[in-house]
Amino acid sequence: MKKNTLALLEKAKHLPTKSGCYLMKRKRAGIEEILYIGKAKNLRSRVSSYFNSSEKSPKTQILVSHIQDFDFIMTKTDAEAYILENNLIKKHIPKYNIQLKDDKSYPYIQIDLNEKFPRLVYTRRPKRKKKIKLFGPFTTGSNILKISRILTKSFTLRDCSIEEMRKRKRPCLIYQMKQCSAPCVDYISEKDYFKDLNYVINFFEGQSRNVLKILEEKMFAAAEREYFERAAEIRDSIEELKSFSQSYEKQNVELSTEKDFDIVAYHVGELEVDISIYMMRSGILLGHKNYHFGKGDSESENHELFQTFLFQYYSNTKEKLPSRIYLDEKKADLSMISEAFNEVLDQEVEVQKPIGKMKTLYDLTLDHAREHQRFRVKNLDGPWVGLNKLKELLNLKETPKILECFDVAIWQGKSPTASQIVFREGKPDKTQYRYYHLEERPEGNNDFAMMREVLSRRLKKGKLPDVFIVDGGKGQVSSFLAVLEDFKLDIPVVGIAKIKTSKQESFKDKEVSSSDERLIIPNRINPYILKKTPSLMRIVVQMRDEAHRFSRKLHHKKERDRIFTSWFDDIEGIGEKTLKTIHENMDLNLKELSQLSVIEISHKLDIKEGIAERIHTKLMAEFPQK
User: Fold this and answer.
1) 367 phi and psi, to 5 degrees?
2) CB-based contact 499:527 (threshold 8 Å)
3) Residues 72-84 pLDDT 10s
4) pTM > 0.90: yes or no
5) Which burial class, exposed, middle or buried, applies to 30 when counting CB atoms under 10 A from its CB (0-12, 13-18, 19+)?
């Protein structure tokens, strides 16, 4: 046993025997990093188990080899430890804790009654706060997006964002088409607007007959005025709404005593834990979700992993919460989970053991978790296949979980920018994406200098990845390694590049196409052809493409702003306030703007006609009309 491990074991022996959370730590590049956060009913016993001579899996051995210190926080109850663990994981995002990514989400219609003139919003990430009406979730294929558009148009409700509405000083084209009542310019009172909105709310609450009757009256009125095209459009809308309302109301008629509930089960395989959730809403099976993670060292650790997942999922999900959750847990655990849920969730959720007919549904959910894992393993699908291949190629001790990719964008030596893309367990972690505005250098492009600037700033943030991905060949990889060496860091680096081959080479090896994606690995003569491992190829190609997209987005904005601002500098009457207004409304380039008349420019940019005329004059000089 190593000297540091013995010291940590001795320290753990002095911990309290009460419940709480523990934080495993290390220092890297001079910055403290939290590696793992766990909860325990007995802190002394649980933390000591990491450092004593008991048998451990390779995964835990690797974790322990990185731990340099630990800390703890005591709680009064197990439920408090459960809540605290979840909050700490969300705050610190430790490398060795599971990070929940929602499997999929279902559509809702959201109406925010806090707004002056609310609108219908189709969303898969509904907000949960006072005075927000939510309808759904709707099953796949319910054409709810089309239905919301029909209702918005039929009752002339606002469809633009609150920001667009506030900026508008004249009604838009939608008003001219008689599909909006123009609340943006007060062409309708709040009282009359809400009268129309309530018809829509009534429709989603199951009172569709009155709504359909009003639309029929509008159809006949349009026909009487000989607006036959409009009458036909309303007729088609009525048919769509009738069809939707019949299925939607049937859903609500078939309510059982178990109206909204989830059944959650988990299966422990050879390497992973698979979790399945069956979701019942409004008396029908809405769908299911699936998750999988690396398994723990013991049955008790797998059980802890499952409980941690439960709290992460239900405290973070954007879906409508069920009134009841069925789990095959001991009575004490059910009580603890229920207590923790009701402490943090915005509604009461019962947690019960499945019995009777629910036991049959639970067995089905458990079988789904088992079959989902079997299918995935058999087909070598999922990110872990690719990450394990990367581990093999780089001869690493553990499977890399966190990958980081940088891309530098520069145009003719101007406006250099860089993007940082982070993937965790093969999926984008957009909370860790970063932009870097770089210095402009006299010599223009200087990849080494720019990458050194990016890394020197990046390293100050801590939480370094397991592997760096570089867009480029051997030269770019060597430059990156040289920068890391300057900072005395030993982190693996690979490059991704499309390498063209000759026709002769392609003929000899049919696997090789003329522009295959290759992984450039230091100290390896031949690059690795990525299509041999599709899972790994998906990860690194997506990272490279995402880095390009993210970097170009900032670079183009920065370059556009630089050119755009200087272009207006010499136009009389444009001060800071007017320039800001132009920026807010400008969604065309200068050549496209030159196609507009003075009045159209004035309307488009929301500026005085005198200023618009001077802009038009300058545009005509630069872009003469043929």
Assistant:
1) -65, -35
2) yes
3) 999 999 889 989 9
4) no
5) exposed
